[in-house]
Each structure stands twice: as C-alpha cells, then as structure tokens.
Amino acid sequence: MTRRGLWIGLSLAAVTAVLLFVLAKGFGRDPHEVPFQLRGKPAPDFTLKRLDTGAPVKLSELKGKPLVLNFWASWCGPCKAEHPVVAMAARRFGQEFQFYGVVFEDTEENARAFAGLPDPAFPQLMDERSRMAVDYGVTGVPETYFIDAQGIIREKVAAPLDPRTMMEKLAALKQPAGPVSEVVR
Q1: What pLDDT is stored for residue 184 in this prediction?
Q2: How many C-beta atoms lie closer than 10 Å to residue 36's C-beta?
Q3: Which CATH superfamily is domain 35-184 in?
C-alpha cells in the first residue's frame, strides 16, 4: 500500500468515526426537545394587568398554590385548539392549581375577541412589549409553564397541550421536585 493510499484510508476512517459519533449522539433523542434553562429555577417575577379588569397580577402574590402559565395569541392556529383544553383544566382543577393565560405579541382588542367572555377560572394577562415572554424565554406560542407552589419552574411545554398531556403535567406538578433535566418535550 502506498503512503497516499494509507492517508486516504486513515482519513476515511476518521471521517467515518466522527460521522458515527454524531449519528449515535443524535439517535434516540426526540427532535422536538427544546433546551430549557429555567427548569428547577425560580420563575421570573412579573406584574401584568388582567385583560378583563385591568387589575395588576404579581407572581410574588401567587405563591402557595401551583401555577400554570399559558402563553398564546389570537393569530396562533394551534392556540385555538389548545385554549379549550387549558380552560377545561382551569375549571376542573381550579381548587388545586392557578391558571393564567398570557397574551403574547397581540392587541387587547384581538385578545378579547379570541378569549371570549371573561373566565374567572382562567384569567388572561396582557404582556405588553413581551417583557415577561423574554424573561421566560418564550420562543413562540403556544407555550405553557408549570410552576410549583414555591415559585419554581418545574416544566415547560412548547407545543399545543392535549387533555392527556395536561393531566400528566398537572399530576407531575403535585409531586415533589425531582432531578432537573436539560430538555423539555
């Protein structure tokens, strides 16, 4: 074998090894997993006004009961399918959990038309200028954050919630905090 043939063979072996390593690291992972840096950390504080009354709502005043924050917008198609799921959970589990919708990059007029009649179990908050969304790392809507009674973010779902997923996340929120993982589904 010539020296050139040896170098070509070694180069091909190295490229193959690197490719196999990259593929092995990628397989077995959910491509929808999103890195989530706030899991296990205190939820960023906020003060937002309610869409129905204009009254301020502060995160610091909500501690003591688990909280579900659902970011949505009237222009978001998946939000239209998800909204009834969150509203149903709020009516069904409002004694155990607090539920708030957070209007993301939308107008009050459009948000009111989308949300319909005010629902005391699922009040909506206006995030003017998206400051809260930036603090929470929202990348799009719908996104839902599950925060425990101590104000620690336990989970984030960056996709429309279906009833089964909502029930699973609420059940997990009742449990003591476990180990923190780097990704969210």
Answers
A1: 44
A2: 20
A3: Glutaredoxin (3.40.30.10)
* Residue 165: exposure state from Cβ atoms within 10 A (0-12, 13-18, ≥19): middle
The verdict on pTM exceeding 0.90 is no
H-helix or E-strand spanning residue 125: strand 124-126
Rounded to an integer, what distance in angstroms lies between the CA atom of residue 105 and that of residue 76?
10
Helix (H, G, I), strand (E, B) or coil at 58: strand
The residue whose two tokens read 């059940």 is: 171
Sheet hosting strand 153-157, strand order edge to edge: 56-58, 47-50, 124-126, 98-103, 67-72, 143-147, 153-157
Report whether 81 contacts 70 (CB < 8 A). no
AA letter at 47: T
Query: For position 112, what pLDDT does the model report?
Result: 94
Do 112 and 89 contact (CB within 8 A), yes or no?
A: no
